[in-house]
Design a protein that fits this description.
This protein has 244 residues and is α/β, with parallel strands linked by helices. It is 36% helix and 23% strand. Strands 5-6-7-3-8-9 form a 6-stranded mixed β-sheet, with helices on both faces. The protein starts with a helix and ends in a 7-residue tail after the last helix.
Length: 244
């Protein structure tokens, strides 16, 4: 096989492959029968009610939970951004981003990553000196500086105010377009999922009940008729009246 053929074969392989995946805690079955492929560069949003298994799925893919049954293949080095940025308060923004970097010039790489998220000049800032939105930007820089093939986002905007949230959504879209990792994005916000993702999954009682791909040009408008129709349909599937 030529190098080009090998490269094409690798690119065609999914970054995530789950077959019959499940997770139980004693008698409590949180996930069961999960079959899922995520292609390189694909942006997947996961929706569902609280307690349906969304975050458990993300933790399994991140390697933070070893109790899965079934088969799993995932990214070579998944990166995770949580709702809480989880920055080390005794380290500067630059030091938080560079944490654990070994190859190349860690300082230069971390500086460039902070510039990408709009924090050039704040390298020496302590986490307490940054706003909530800025701390989340540092967390994104820390994840992406490792050039992961799989980026896992666990409701990273839910603690932000409305205006900061819109800015953070735009930033994630721009960073995804620049780096093109596969993304699994856990959110409760249907509109947010439709603005960012290529594909939506609905989880209910630990199982995937709906899996839909769509192709709407970016950047997307909240009032786009196709997005409005899809939002109404997804809310209906989630048991929510769109008029509420």
């Amino acid at each position: 096989m030529t190098a080009t053929a090998r490269s094409a074969a690798t690119a065609s392989e999914p970054v995530v492959r789950l077959r019959g995946a499940g997770r139980s805690f004693g008698d409590n079955v949180v996930l069961h029968g999960i079959d899922l492929d995520i292609a390189p560069g694909e942006f997947v949003a996961v929706l569902g009610r609280s307690g349906c298994g969304k975050t458990t799925l993300l933790r399994l893919l991140a390697g933070l939970d070893r109790g899965m049954t079934g088969e799993m293949r995932t990214g070579r080095e998944p990166a995770v951004v949580f709702q809480d940025p989880r920055l080390l308060p005794w380290r500067t923004a630059l030091q938080n981003v560079a944490l654990g970097l070994r190859d190349g010039d860690p300082k230069a790489r971390a500086t460039a990553a902070l510039a990408e998220v709009g924090l050039a000049g704040r390298e020496r800032a302590w986490p307490r000196q940054l706003s909530g939105g800025q701390r989340q930007r540092v967390a994104l820089a820390r994840a992406l500086v490792r050039e992961p093939d799989l980026l896992l986002l666990d409701e990273p905007f839910s603690a932000l105010d409305a205006l900061t949230r819109v800015s953070a959504q735009r930033l994630v879209r721009e960073l995804w377009e620049l780096h093109r990792p596969a993304v699994l994005f856990v959110t409760h916000d249907v509109e947010e999922a439709l603005l960012l993702a290529d594909r939506t999954l609905l989880i209910e009682r630990g199982a995937i009940i709906h899996d839909e791909r769509f192709d709407v040009p970016r950047p997307r408008r909240r009032d786009d008729p196709e997005l409005v129709a899809r939002r109404t349909d997804l809310l209906r599937r989630l048991g929510v009246d769109d008029a509420e």
